[in-house]
Design a protein that fits this description.
By secondary structure, the chain is an all-alpha fold. The chain is 82% helix and 0% strand. The chain has 21 helices and no strands.
Length: 487
């Protein structure tokens, strides 16, 4: 049973990770094309609309999706009640957004939002249906069925809809159409994948009461999580305008996409597996330490590369008219590990069934983001990025202290898990700086590609000859039970 859980977890993570990496590559290509066809203002307008869409998602979610995954027993009436409740709330959210569209546009001082929100509002039921289908598939460890669905919907919505529309001059409506097609196609394909797990819609007061006891903990944290993810965008859009918001969203797209990639792996593979071994603290400690080490190994060198080659990367990915995004891109890219490690800790508390343990941290993080960003907004986008980075680092430290107490994980073991990744990052930084200093006249695309190839080849060679030192024994790669039987 233990081997089966480990194998399924790793296989699921591999499927989700592979599909997410492919989607990241396609996203980089699509961004490079669309950034040359659209203006920062047009990107900022749609970014403002997505803030409202995230608010609707927070309302209809109600913590039901993670509850379906975390509960030890899920009956058909639980599934029917969860779907009926979420879809009912999603329809109410759509109606509310449609009528409040003009008010939201006035609040954000972006007039174009009125018509955009009246279109996007009706996507909320599709979003609610998709989230719950993903939860059912994740609970049953059927990750392969869900892995390729987002890749399929993204490819259609971006390359068959958004790019042609942008080419023919539809402006921000090309991004709106991309969002609509991606959501609808994703809902249809996920529904088809989960068709054998779905039941006839219905509502049971008893089932809802059982679900609500746990979902309340997830629901309490959602408003604060929403604020931490969107407060900076809202303040930038309102105070500095949609053009600056567009620059900010493009500067943060890499970090945001990487966080989404890891979030997919955690939500659909790691979280269900952790939930099944939630009573075994030693297995949780081992899995968490290994995930910290792998995260650091993957993200810290990447962050160093992005910081050192920020100007060249922005030129290659976005083009010359996005030069104001260089410094924000460098700052936000440097925080990649903080964001993913935070999600890693949050996944642990979800698996333990105690999401409310970190409610105070969510509140502090939201308050710090809102207060700090509003305070420094008059000083420009760079100051905002510095504040966001500082808040993320400080709040991660607080989260690690809570983790230490929750599963008796010594800080010394956490620090040891980061030693080899830090050494590799230092070496990668030295290589990047050396190449940049020796080849200053090389064009940006060639310089970036050459350095990237050198880094990847050096990394693969090092890991191949140091597998035990860097990754540890395969037995501790995920959720192993110690040989001494300790707990």
């Amino acid at each position: 049973m233990r081997e089966s859980l480990t194998a399924r977890t790793l296989r699921g993570a591999a499927w989700i990770g592979g599909a997410s990496v492919a989607r990241l590559a396609l996203r980089v290509v699509s961004v490079a094309i669309l950034a040359r066809l659209l203006t920062p203002h047009e990107y900022g307008v749609v970014a403002g609309a997505l803030i409202a869409m995230d608010f609707a998602a927070m309302i209809y979610g109600m913590g039901l999706a993670p509850t379906l995954v975390q509960r030890k027993e899920v009956r058909p009436d639980h599934v029917a009640t969860a779907f009926s409740s979420a879809l009912f709330i999603a329809v109410l959210a759509a109606v509310g957004m449609w009528f409040a569209a003009s008010l939201i546009a006035d609040l954000m001082q972006i007039p174009e939002l009125t018509q955009i929100l009246k279109v996007l509002a009706w996507l909320t039921p599709f979003g609610a249906f998709s989230v719950l289908c993903e939860a059912l598939l994740a609970r049953n460890m059927q990750v392969k069925r869900v892995a390729l669905r987002p890749l399929f919907s993204f490819t259609i919505s971006t390359f068959l809809v958004a790019i042609p529309m942008a080419w023919y001059g539809f402006g921000y409506w090309s991004l709106v159409a991309m969002q609509a097609v991606d959501t609808i196609v994703g809902a249809v394909t996920l529904g088809f994948a989960a068709r054998k797990l779905l039941v006839r819609p219905g509502f049971s007061r008893h089932a809802f009461a059982e679900l609500w006891r746990l979902s309340l903990g997830f629901t309490i944290n959602q408003p604060f999580s929403y604020l931490t993810q969107n407060a900076d965008r809202f303040i930038i859009g309102r105070v500095l305008g949609p053009a600056t918001l567009g620059i900010y969203t493009r500067a943060t797209f890499f970090a945001t996409t990487a966080a989404t990639l890891f979030g997919n792996i955690a939500r659909l593979s790691v979280f269900p597996a952790m939930a099944q071994v939630q009573q075994d603290k030693e297995r949780l400690r081992s899995a968490l330490l290994k995930s910290f080490s792998i995260l650091a190994l993957l993200t810290l060198p990447v962050s160093a590369f992005c910081v050192i080659f920020a100007k060249e990367l922005v030129d290659v990915l976005l083009g010359g008219k996005w030069h104001l995004a260089v410094v924000p891109f460098a700052i936000v890219s440097g925080t990649l590990y903080f964001s993913l490690a935070w999600r890693n800790c949050a996944t642990l508390f979800q698996a333990l069934g105690h999401p409310y343990w970190i409610t105070a941290v969510h509140i502090c993080r939201a308050a710090a983001i809102i207060g700090g960003v509003w305070w420094v907004a008059p000083y420009g986008l760079t100051a905002i990025c510095v504040v966001v980075a500082a808040v993320m680092a400080f709040m991660l430290a607080m989260m690690l202290i809570i983790v230490k107490r929750a599963i008796d994980l010594p800080l010394r073991r956490m620090a040891a898990a980061h030693f080899h990744p830090l050494v590799i990052t230092a070496a990668a930084s030295g290589l990047c700086l050396t190449v940049k200093a020796l080849l200053p006249e090389l064009p940006s695309p060639a310089l970036v590609i050459l350095t990237l190839l050198l880094l990847l080849s050096s990394f693969c060679v090092f890991v191949f000859f140091n597998q035990e030192r860097v990754l540890g024994s395969h037995r501790v790669l995920a959720f192993h039970r110690p040989q001494n039987g300790g707990r």
